[in-house]
Design brief:
Elements (H helix, E strand, L loop, with lengths): L11 E3 L17 E9 L5 E7 L4 E7 L14 H24 L7 E13 L6 E4 L2 E7 L5 H14 L1 H7 L5 E6 L2 E3 L18 H4 L13 E5 L17 E14 L5 E9 L4 E6 L14 H23 L4 E12 L18 E8 L3 H14 L1 H7 L4 E7 H5 L1
Parallel strand pairs: 7-16, 8-15
Antiparallel strand pairs: 1-4, 2-3, 2-14, 3-4, 5-6, 5-7, 5-11, 8-9, 10-13, 11-12, 12-13, 14-15
Helix pairs in contact: 1-2, 1-5, 5-6
Length: about 400
């Protein structure tokens, strides 16, 4: 089976010729549409081709897991992509609105904390993932008007399409093919329309554009997780019974080159620290030298959902041979940068699942169901969540 370590390519790169992948273009959209094609690799590793609708660009990304899932820890964990996507989406909105209001963002930094829960029994089918309110703290220069900055950050967050995904109660939809056969899913959660399948050789066709067209080191590992045992340690997330809370932190700064730099770490369970680079597309005042916030966010949902399918199958010792998805996420145009003061919005996530296994159709259907039920990020979609915003002056925080 393919693996991250067997690939000659960097963890993230922009695909040179998206048309050669044979995955088709995206339907026209008045907002931002992102289609994520993802497949399972060795162990807990995943690989994705993320097609960004407004520009037609495709980014290849990979994800892994740390010791808590017995992963190889060679690439960021799924929740990292989601946190990076959210905080970069918020930062883009803040930048756009600051330009409109004539506010300088000197020495500006965002710290975002995401919290998730997992509780119940996989064997009894009661295990469920949850998402808790997001905490966002902006640190500004000591000379900045605090009230003006608080209004700026709060207004920009409200306009962000990422906030639209959190604020609404969005019920995800699915379709399933098991060993090449269509299998019906819960009618209340079924995708309307035809099943979308991932072309088997799409990833083999993906080659990077020339190195001067995307930033070097888009994702780099900064610090490795300590290998510990017991709660939050090696293999702890593979237990059949769970009752725990997860904590992810991302710290986003603006680089001198105009890109966003995010340091991301999983505190609970114990995980490694990674650095991400993000950039907006030319349509939204960027240079597309790295994936956008919404591209990362969409990849995170896909990676997390697939991880939960694999984790559930591992716990129940199912004969799961391979699995792939095609996922559609749809968002409103960036609010502040689009010149509107309307709140950001998003549509329900649609996921087409292909499973190859030695199990029954009913077992495959259960994998799809439990994948959604235990996925932290599908929980974030179906649970209306509030972003708690705080603004600190740098001198105050330092004290």
């Amino acid at each position: 089976m393919a693996s991250i370590q067997s690939s000659p390519h960097p963890l993230v790169f922009r695909v040179a010729d998206p048309g050669a992948l044979g995955i088709g273009g995206l339907p026209p959209s008045t907002g931002v549409r992102v289609r994520t094609h993802a497949r399972s690799l060795e162990g807990m590793q995943k690989e994705a081709l993320v097609a960004y609708g407004p520009t037609g660009s495709v980014w290849r990304m990979v994800s892994d897991a740390g010791p808590y899932l017995n992963g190889t820890d060679l690439a960021p964990f799924p929740l990292a992509f989601f946190t990076v996507g959210m905080v970069c989406s918020f930062m883009s909105e803040i930048q756009a609105l600051a330009r409109t209001r004539g506010i300088r963002l000197d020495d500006f930094e965002l710290t975002q904390d995401n919290f998730y829960t997992m509780e119940g029994s996989a064997a009894r089918g009661t295990m469920i993932g949850g998402a808790l309110p997001v905490e966002l703290s902006a640190t500004v220069d000591s000379g900045t008007d605090a009230s003006a900055m608080t209004d700026l950050v709060s207004s920009a967050v409200a306009a962000s399409p990422a906030n639209g995904l959190l604020r609404a109660e969005l019920a995800s939809a699915f379709s399933l093919r098991h060993n090449g056969r269509t299998v019906a899913v819960d009618p209340a959660k079924a995708v309307r329309g035809e099943h979308l399948a991932l072309r088997a050789d799409a990833f083999d066709r993906a080659e990077p554009v020339s190195s001067d067209r995307f930033a070097p080191g888009i994702i780099t590992k900064v610090e490795s997780a300590k290998t510990v045992f017991g709660e939050g340690g090696a293999g702890s997330s593979l237990k059949a019974e769970q009752k725990r809370t997860l904590h992810v932190r991302g710290i986003c700064r603006l680089g001198s080159d105009g890109m966003k730099e995010v340091a991301i770490q999983l505190f609970k369970p114990i995980g490694s620290m990674f650095r991400f680079l993000a950039d907006d597309s030319a349509r939204f005042s960027g240079g597309e030298r790295a994936p956008s916030g919404l591209a990362y966010l969409s990849a995170g949902i896909a990676f997390c959902y697939m991880t939960q399918i694999g984790r559930y199958a591992h716990i129940l010792k199912h004969d799961l041979r391979s699995y792939r998805i095609v996922q559609d996420t749809r968002f409103s145009l960036p609010g502040a940068s689009g010149g509107t003061r309307e709140a950001g919005s998003a549509q329900p996530v649609e996921t087409h699942v292909d499973i190859d296994s030695g199990e029954s159709d009913e077992a495959a259907r259960k994998m799809v169901q439990m994948g959604e039920q235990t996925c932290f990020l599908h929980a974030a979609c179906r649970t209306p969540l509030h972003v708690k915003v705080r603004v600190d002056r740098r001198s105050t925080r330092a004290a």
